[in-house]
């Protein structure tokens, strides 16, 4: 009886798919890092305690719009990045007695997607609603119109939606830390979790605090990109853990 020839094509295709997953996960993490850092760096930081035409000009500026779009896009890239991370972890050889962390990564994808979606609603109001009010103040020369900015920003429904969105983003960070902890990427997971968990409290900080937080979030995601490109891949599937 003739022994069938052994083919390496499936293994080769699996290896290529694994490399693609690593590449796109790393690109997603780097993109999210740069966008989340760009938000506080580009955002104008006027004195918002006293309504003025200078404040109105900053809120109506292109920098205000671009910065907030970067913030939305950065949060929006988290879920695709974590989805890629799940694929990468699934194809890794876990440490002895360890797990892949794919269940935690799957939960991170869901929470990050939901969180980013809810945050985008509030960011949209910041971009278009506040800018419209500020443009009216500039056009009429009446800074008193800026009183509506606080009304828009802190209406109860908006606050609840934004807080819930950021809570889900924080949960995604913790879940990513759990997933990476099980596969050797502890530093990347911990820094990423710190950046995402602190997303809500940093909104109450000074501009310096908020920029520092942007650096922290960016460093965490860059470490994720580094971790996925440095880990060892396999071509065989493994059960979830």
From TrEMBL:
Keywords: Membrane, Transmembrane, Transmembrane helix. The chain crosses the membrane at residues 21-43, 63-83, 104-125, 157-181, 188-205, 211-229. Coiled coil: none annotated. It comes from the Bacteria. The keyword Membrane applies. This is DUF4386 family protein. It comes from Isoptericola cucumis.
């Amino acid at each position: 009886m003739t022994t069938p020839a052994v083919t390496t094509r499936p293994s080769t295709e699996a290896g290529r798919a694994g490399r693609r997953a690593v590449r796109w996960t790393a690109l997603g993490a780097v993109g999210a890092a740069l966008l989340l850092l760009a938000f506080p760096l580009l955002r104008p930081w006027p004195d918002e305690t006293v309504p003025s035409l200078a404040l109105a000009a900053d809120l109506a500026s292109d920098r205000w719009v671009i910065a907030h779009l970067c913030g939305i896009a950065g949060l929006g890239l988290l879920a695709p990045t974590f989805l890629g991370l799940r694929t990468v972890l699934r194809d890794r050889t876990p440490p002895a007695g360890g797990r892949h962390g794919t269940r935690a990564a799957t939960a991170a994808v869901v929470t990050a997607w939901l969180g980013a979606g809810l945050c985008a609603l509030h960011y949209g109001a910041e971009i278009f609603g506040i800018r419209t009010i500020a443009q009216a103040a500039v056009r009429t020369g009446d800074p008193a119109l800026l009183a509506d900015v606080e009304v828009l920003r802190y209406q109860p429904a908006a606050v609840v939606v934004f807080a819930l969105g950021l809570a889900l983003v924080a949960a995604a960070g913790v879940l990513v830390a759990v997933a990476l902890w099980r596969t050797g990427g502890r530093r990347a997971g911990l820094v990423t979790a710190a950046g995402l968990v602190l997303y809500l409290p940093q909104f109450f900080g000074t501009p310096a605090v908020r920029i520092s937080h942007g650096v922290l979030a960016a460093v965490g995601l860059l470490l994720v990109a580094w971790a996925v490109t440095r880990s060892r891949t396999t071509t065989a599937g493994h059960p979830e853990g």
